[in-house]
Write a structure and sequence with these properties.
There is one protein chain. It is built from 15 helices and 12 strands. The protein is of the alpha/beta class. It folds into 2 domains: about 210 residues, Rossmann fold, CATH 3.40.50; about 150 residues, Glycogen Phosphorylase B (Rossmann fold, 3-Layer(aba) Sandwich), CATH 3.40.50. The protein has a 7-stranded parallel sheet, sandwiched between helices. Helix 11 packs across helix 14. It is globular, with a radius of gyration of 22 Å. This is Glycosyltransferase.
């Protein structure tokens, strides 16, 4: 059903292709929607406009103004990854160099003054102009690592980042003053966002482009794609698989790292099981893609965070939950399943994505929020 022709801009990042996909589906439903970014994702290039004229602080300021001016005529600004256009995050400097370079010190001081003046200015101006403002949080843009470490039985020390935690707290506090609605795509983020925020499942794939591949290999292919080995729990995965191999288990490990999407897709379609992350407590976009292909998934699901998602979704989740301490047992459980049991689990995975990660359903819900 076609919707009223609202103009929507998704900015300023396109993390995992989600914002651009939302824009494309919104457009198919009648909205004038586009995704404009400041940073080009090397793996996902489905955005509509890219504002980057080169390296350097001054170029970054100019690019932000160009993006800002390009969307002045829209009705709704949908920020993504919890960041506005004039947001520089955490900037670090080489203090050793600055002690011997007065010019660098002056440049740093000027940059800090400009940042202090401009930070968040787009949000304030859009608010004064009466624009409707929304924001989606996608993960590390909202998480507070020190709190996660206290809630998890295991959390890698390398991932604890107090400086980023403070940026996230400040950003959430600032954005909350102006946003008409706040969305988040991972349940655990509900612990850090205002109570009136809304959980929205991943809507980054078209089911027509991810037809199920239910064929099974005589020797099971176990796939793991560690974009970040520490946070994915890769060490525990490899340790468990080595132990199983030593015990005589028969399987093939497929590690997907530093591959383009076409190469990786071939491995996705040919595998029998995906092992996703074992630490954060929820599955990522890759798990959605593999479940759409009809593949069983092992991933850590933090039970306390499931209260943030619909009850029906909780009941339907087909994922085998495992953390770094139980991954050996859960892989062994899967390997001991009959081919029929694995096949039925794959069918459940596909149906789950059809029910809970349907792009048109999710975007239609977003549009209703836009129209309120």
């Amino acid at each position: 059903m076609k919707q009223v022709n609202l103009k929507v801009a998704h900015v300023p990042k396109n993390v995992a292709g989600l914002p651009a996909n939302l824009a494309h589906v919104e457009k198919s439903l009648g909205l004038d929607s586009k995704c404009s970014v400041l940073v080009d994702d090397p793996f996902v290039k489905n955005h509509d406009a890219y504002f980057s004229s080169g390296a350097g602080f001054l170029s970054g300021v100019i690019d932000r103004f160009r993006l800002f001016l390009s969307i002045l005529d829209v009705d709704i600004i949908h920020y993504n990854f919890g960041r506005c256009i004039f947001d520089w995050g955490h900037i670090t400097y080489d203090d050793a160099q600055e002690n011997f370079n007065v010019v660098v010190k002056v440049k740093r001081t000027i940059s800090e003054i400009i940042i202090r003046i401009l930070s968040g200015i787009d949000v304030r101006i859009f608010h004064l102009l009466g624009k409707k403002l929304c924001v989606t949080y996608q993960g590390d843009d909202a998480r507070v690592s020190t709190k996660i470490a206290n809630k998890r039985a295991y959390y890698p020390e390398i991932s604890i980042n107090p400086a980023r935690d403070e940026i996230n707290r400040s950003s959430i506090e600032y954005m909350s003053r102006y946003m008409t609605h706040i969305f988040y795509v991972n349940p655990d983020l509900g612990n850090y966002l205002p109570e009136n925020s809304t959980f929205v499942p991943y809507a980054h794939i078209s089911l027509d482009e991810w037809e199920p591949k239910y064929q099974q290999n005589k020797i099971p292919k176990i796939l793991h794609a560690p974009s970040n080995r520490s946070i994915k729990g890769t060490e525990a995965v490899l340790k468990a698989l080595t132990k199983l191999k030593d015990e005589g288990a028969v399987f093939e490990l497929v590690l997907v790292e530093k591959m383009n999407r076409e190469q990786a897709r071939k491995h996705y379609e040919a595998c029998d099981l995906l092992i996703d992350q074992l630490i954060i407590g929820w599955y990522g976009g890759l798990a959605v893609e593999l479940m759409a292909l009809g593949k069983p998934v092992i991933c850590y699901l933090h039970q306390d965070d499931l209260s943030f998602i619909p009850k029906g979704m909780q009941n339907d989740i087909p994922i085998i939950s495992a953390d770094v301490f139980s991954i050996y047992d859960q892989i062994k459980l899967f390997l001991n399943m009959s081919l029929d049991e694995r096949h039925r689990l794959g069918i459940r995975s596909r149906k789950y994505v059809e029910q809970w990660h349907n792009q048109e359903k999710i975007v239609s819900q977003l549009i209703e929020v836009y129209k309120q």
